[in-house]
Design goal:
With about 325 residues, this protein is an alpha/beta fold. The protein has helices at about 10-20, 35-45, 55-60, 75-85, 100-115, 130-140, 165-170, 170-190, 280-290, 300-320, and strands spanning about 5-10, 30-35, 50-55, 65-70, 90-95, 120, 145-155, 190-200, 210-220, 225-230, 240-245, 250-255, 260, 265-270, 325. The relative contact order is 0.15.
Length: about 325
């Protein structure tokens, strides 16, 4: 049975998401909700939507809607989760789960009280190359993991609510960098400490930081290094990940189809199957967790931990000091 999923908020990423859903029309029946009825209708026409709604309330009240994908601004997540939960709809909410720990806890409690599934739309860990990296790490093929590096330098100018710190919850790191935090948790586990510093600012139309360096240490000693910037000043660079172990190193571009493995004697390319963008696999996990009455992989608790570490990175930016996550 297909998932009856309403996309709430018809913005840029909703377009990307819906384009991926067109690849699995037998698995997902889409509908669209927007404060602008004409925009919802346009999305329904473009992406084969079964219905469209001129308000989020109308979508929540419709009995044909089984679940709601909340692709809305960060400061509205708590309100929209409450709306969906009150209507008994399962909830796929965009990352970050919230702007603050208080909001995140309230969101999780709201979903639990309503007995609906809550999943954070963290698609990066569902990418084929990330899944393959996890498989190689867990197999021991890389040996003891020493360093995980992630780099993204993208040209992006935040606007509207994204440019306002109070609405976004911060700057680029809570918005895009949280993807890298989730990958780090997925590959290396919870860090012991976090150090972060903002890069000199280039984008003067946004209140938050436009670049950050984050360094973590896991409980086993693995170092994580994230370099994430929205102020690109060079040519197009891929969004890449490198994992160095005592036996071998792997590297790959996020949303790529290949992974390079080097053991010091030979470098080989591994073709990677699976979902390139992670969106289809993420939605399938959301649907399956609903059907099987279990926690989804990127549950509210996972989203909460991603947010916690992201906020600790901001704490470090402010203090200039490393922040210990779990003091004894």
């Amino acid at each position: 049975m297909s998932l009856k999923l309403c996309v709430v908020g018809c913005g840029k990423f909703a377009r990307i998401f819906s384009g991926e859903m067109k690849k699995i029309p037998e698995e997902v029946d889409l509908s669209f909700a927007s404060r602008d009825a004409q925009r919802a209708a346009e999305y329904a026409t473009a992406f084969g939507g079964k219905a469209w709604f001129g308000s989020y309330e109308a979508a929540a009240a419709d009995p044909t809607v089984e679940a709601m994908y909340l692709c809305t601004p960060h400061h509205l997540h708590r309100e929209h989760v409450a709306l969906a939960a009150a209507a008994g709809k399962h909830i796929l909410v965009e990352k970050p789960i919230a702007r603050t720990m208080e909001e995140a806890h309230a969101i999780i409690e709201t979903a639990e009280r309503a007995d609906v599934t809550l999943m954070v739309a963290e698609n990066y860990r569902f990418m084929g190359v990330v899944r393959k990296a996890k498989e190689l790490i867990d197999s021991g093929a890389l040996g003891e993991i020493r360093l995980i590096q992630m780099q993204e330098e993208a040209g992006f100018q935040p606007s509207q609510w994204r440019a306002i710190r109070a609405l976004n919850g911060g700057g680029l790191f809570i918005d895009g960098g949280i993807h890298k935090i989730d990958i780090l948790l997925y590959l290396a586990g919870r860090p012991r400490d976090v150090y972060a510093t903002a890069l000199p600012k280039v984008l003067d139309k946004t209140e938050g930081e436009d670049g950050a360096i984050v360094i973590t240490h896991s409980k086993t000693g693995t170092v994580g290094l994230i370099n994430h910037s929205w102020a690109k000043v060079h040519g197009q660079k891929p969004n890449w990940v490198s994992v160095s172990g005592s036996k071998a190193r792997i590297s790959f571009d996020l949303a790529g189809t290949q992974l390079t493995m080097d053991d010091g004697m030979e470098e080989r390319t591994i073709e990677v199957a699976g979902d390139r963008h992670g969106i289809i696999t993420m939605v399938q996990e959301f649907r399956n967790s609903n059907r099987e009455s279990r926690e989804p992989e990127t549950s509210g608790a996972v989203g909460l931990e991603d947010l916690e570490i992201t906020l600790k990175a901001y704490e470090s930016m402010e203090s200039g000091q490393s922040v210990l996550l779990d003091p004894d």
